[in-house]
Here is the input.
Amino acid sequence: MRNVIVLSLLLLNLHHVVSAPKGVTASLSAKWSMTPFLLDTSEFIGEDGNEKFWQFVDTVKELTVYKQGESVRSYYNLILKKAGQFLTDLQVNLLRFSLALRSYSPAVQASQQIASDEPPPEACLAFISIHGQHGCSTKDIKKLLKAAAGRPKPYLYNKDHIYPGFNKTDVPIVILYAEIGTKKFASFHKVLSEKAGEGTLTYVLRHFVAHPKPQKMLLSGYGVELAIKSTEYKAVDDTKVKDLSVQAAARIMSVPKFDALKLMRDLSQNFPSKARSLTRVAVKPEMRKEIEENQKRLAESIGVHPGDGELFINGLHIDLDVHNPFSILDILRGEARVLEGLHNLGIKGEHQGKLLRLPVNAVDDSYALDIRHPAIMKASPGVRVGVIDNPSGKPSQDNTVLFRALWASLLTQKNKAAAEFVQKLLREESSQLLQKGTKMKDLLIQVKEKLRNAFLCLSSQRRSDYIYLIYNIECFS
Here is the structure.
């Protein structure tokens, strides 16, 4: 009997070992405690103006009473709903992105750190500081204001939230340290906002959480690498995985367009576990051909080769070696303001796209290219750019393929080396070949190859000039 019991225990332990998960879970935490979503949201809205910040504060001044009976997801959705009263749908989507990054958590923590340096009075859920003296109740305001004149004013930071009022310089400054949405905050806010509106004081709000959560702030981990090496031997047949990227694309294209981005996220974030199932995906020849054509076109136009990754936002090239999700969020907010400004002016649809494609780079006044230079207007005596494609017609921007391409490129061209390539192109023999019926596209093949070879040896600043020249020759030929 004893042997049976021992054997049963061994089997139970064996079952436990076999069923134990192999996955490794890693997390990255900051040194400070988790900050409330409501405070992060207020900082996001505050970026659009001080007035909008205080309007949002008035709307959510007692919102945390709903937090007790709601799940975290429901409370999060409630915050988004309240923020939606002051944000457009596009800005609400950016707010979701910001909350996922917790990009404004450091700003909230900065106020928390300032509050801890006061230091806060004991057992106070919220407190005021009037020229160095503290109070935990609205009843203390009147008493502290009377004695404030004889003490120096506190230092105010650029990111401090000052209640809009008369902005007098000869009135006391009252700093409220409280958590937006709590009853204690609401009672202080009611009194201070009224007095600030009367011009008797300057009301400043700084975030303060009386009882921070014990959990540390979880960070997204962008730019952080966790190197884990598996010592298990895995035999992989290269012939079965060489087309995984194409098969992944085919899998994504096979689902409805509303689910395509979700599937792409799932495949990219869990690729090792999804790889085996992808090997069984059949790829249509038409799709494979289209992918190859797209790869060729991208390699020729902007230098993106298979395996590379590039990010463009409304035509702006985002260098992923320089930018991170936080700076990309700033770019997206800037682009959103431009789009909404155009929309408010009545510019919508395809007209917005045309305006966004206009060059917005600053003009370098130290250098200008004279388009009347012989390298542009003449290849050799008697040969003009305007007649190289149509020798019998009158020189015109409309009737000349090459002229339109060069005109579009060289108006913004700052690279002298590009003009040298153009000079080689515009020769007497080029005009003779065109007169004999040679197609412009065939004539430009050699020139484009020279441009591309030179492109590889240039800096990123000068590459943009070559891309623009190659692009225009490609389009107009």
The two ends are 91 Å apart (CA to CA). The CA atoms of residues 458 and 466 lie 9 Å apart. The chain is about 50% helix and 10% strand.
